[in-house]
Amino acid sequence: MCKFFSFCSNGRGQYLFFDIKDIEKIENQGNKKQYEYDSHTSICNYFKFDEDKCNKYEYDPEKKEFKIDQINTKDDSIEAKDWVERFWNDKLFLTKLHKKNSGDSNSGNWNSGNWNSGYRNSGDGNSGDRNSGDRNSGYRNSGDGNSGNWNSGNRNSGDRNSGDGNSGDSNSGNWNSGDGNSGDRNSGDRNSGNRNSGDGNSGYSNSGNRNSGDRNSGYRNSGDGNSGDRNSGDRNSGNRNSGDGNSGNWNSGNRNSGDRNSGDGNSGDSNSGNWNSGNRNSGFFNTNEPNIRIFNKQTNLKREKIIFPIYFNFDLVFWKSIDLLTIQEQKKHPECKTTGGILIKLNYKDAWRRSFDNAKKEDIEKTLKLPNFDYTIFEEITGISKKDFDIKLLED
Fold it and tell me: What is the pLDDT averaged over residues 96-106?
């Protein structure tokens, strides 16, 4: 490779050299033939000119020194010296050519922007490479001030962010240390809500996952402030509660430490009354368990002596994954794209119907064997009629 600016002539006033457009074209195609832009051999190869039939010259525009390298055809050195001195009336072209920059004040190479120490930047002030944005130390950013890579947003230390100020990756939201968030200030991943340390939340400030509610450390809650899972109510440490403040499970009532209570403040289970430590009481402050009264009639049996069908145990809330949602449900609950589904809350009779429809024939038959069974009373409570039983029992 020759020193300074190199060019060739055919001895008849035609001068060949690499100008900026030639260099940009070659570099955009990856310079597969490894051309050296101040080499006589590369100049002849690129322009398909016989190297042994051309004159070769060099010029130092800073010292204004002209040098004859070889004369291989008619001597046109006087004309060549005059041409190159007029051509080099701006010595900034030397930096642009030999550093391959079309922009100004670049210490890096192949920049069309200005003040770049990196390479191939169309933006300004980049220390990284291939940035169309400005002041990036990372690579291939169209945004500004990124230390990460492939960001269209600004001030990201992470990669592939369209939002701003993210240390995580692939965020369209802002200031996320997690990945794939459309919301803001999330340390978790794939959140459309804000300030979540958990994943897949459309709500806010959740440390748990897939919550549409707020401030949950548990999972899949549509309510708020739950440490348990799948609650539509609030402040539950237990699971699947539609009521509030329960440490137990499956309560529609409030502040129960027991399970399946519709009443409030029970430490026992399945109470419709309040403040019972015993089970299955409709009254108040009971410590024991009464005999079962069923279908408005008393029996001499305790609960454990009666076998209830499996379908009697149903949830008032259930998780419906996104692949099972209708188009209308997806439009009504856009957060499902983040959480992966929604928590469906049913009214009491709808929950009975859903469970009945999914029950097996032998389970339906157990219903008819309950003490004091009465179709009219059962329909009043559940919405399920004798006709529904008859159709169900005809199923194969």
Answer: 58
